[in-house]
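Task: sequence design from structure.
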């Protein structure tokens, strides 16, 4: 359903909701208004990719709906985006029924409609940002922590994206995209410190994305760690020929992924960007000698 929003509210006829809906429609979105009734939501012929829950009213009436939306988002993290609107108490109450990690952003009332539309356009373009819930306050929910390094995870597998995001989000700002085109669009808007890029993707492969990024001055210096499901000699040689920062073979255990990312930034701090770094460790494969061959060329 193209640019469609499921707007869940108990006050669909109120002046405020009517005005917000008009602004969203004027911005190019289709708005489907629905009460917080799980049966009505599941009866929709097509489920939108964007959900807005306006938390104004009886808290209990939203509990089951939030749990239901949480299951929907969790099942398709790369494509489904959930936003909350409410006061601090209402938002905090909502988090008793849905994990913070499943909420793209929580907006406090009164909402700046321009900010809301900007966030929705970003989600529609295929990327999202989810902030760490470790010690965060409601007012900071969804806000990027500038003291942390930023990662972009790129994979067409939504389950893997959600898993990697869950592992990394405690230490890093984590963005996700689900295709090569969306990755390039995202990086036109902002830079990140490191990209974890799936090598095998449909339409535009990870290698094509890598070459496209290296051809643009604005993205050429962003380091890339490739993720590949194949560990045969031919694939490994193709990956290493373009000299990424590192590569990992999927499925990647959480501890290995964290160690690889942590070591990358640790080495970056120690050796800087102009001094040669030690040879990266290619985990879960026996091809270190191939890397030595390429580095000697």
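Answer:
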């Amino acid at each position: 359903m193209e640019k469609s929003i499921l707007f869940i509210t108990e006050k669909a006829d109120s002046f405020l909701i009517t005005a917000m809906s008009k602004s969203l429609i004027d911005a190019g979105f289709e708005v489907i208004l629905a009460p917080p009734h799980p049966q009505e939501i599941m009866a929709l012929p097509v489920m939108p990719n964007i959900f807005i829950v306006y938390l104004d009213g009886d808290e209990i009436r939203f509990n089951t709906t939030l749990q239901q939306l949480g299951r929907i988002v969790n099942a398709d993290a790369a494509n489904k985006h959930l936003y909350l609107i409410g006061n601090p108490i209402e938002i905090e109450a909502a988090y008793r029924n849905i994990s913070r990690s499943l909420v793209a952003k929580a907006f406090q009332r009164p909402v700046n409609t321009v900010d809301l539309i900007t966030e929705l356009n970003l989600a529609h373009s295929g990327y999202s940002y989810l902030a760490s819930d470790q010690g965060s306050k409601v007012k900071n929910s969804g806000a990027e922590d500038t003291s942390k390094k930023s990662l972009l995870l790129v994979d067409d597998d939504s389950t893997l994206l959600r898993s990697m995001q869950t592992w990394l989000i405690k230490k890093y700002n984590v963005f996700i995209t689900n295709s090569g085109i969306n990755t390039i669009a995202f990086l036109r808007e902002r830079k990140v410190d490191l990209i974890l890029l799936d090598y095998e993707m449909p339409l535009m492969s990870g290698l094509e994305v890598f070459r496209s990024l290296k051809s643009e001055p604005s993205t050429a210096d962003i380091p890339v760690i490739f993720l590949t499901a194949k560990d045969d000699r031919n694939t490994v040689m193709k990956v290493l020929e373009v000299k990424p920062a590192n590569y990992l073979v999927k499925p990647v255990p959480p501890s290995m992924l964290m160690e690889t990312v942590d070591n990358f930034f640790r080495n970056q701090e120690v050796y800087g960007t102009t001094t040669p770094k030690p040879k990266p460790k290619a985990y879960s494969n026996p091809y270190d000698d191939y890397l030595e061959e390429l580095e000697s060329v």
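Confidence is low (pLDDT under 50) at residues 129-143, 274-291, 293-297.
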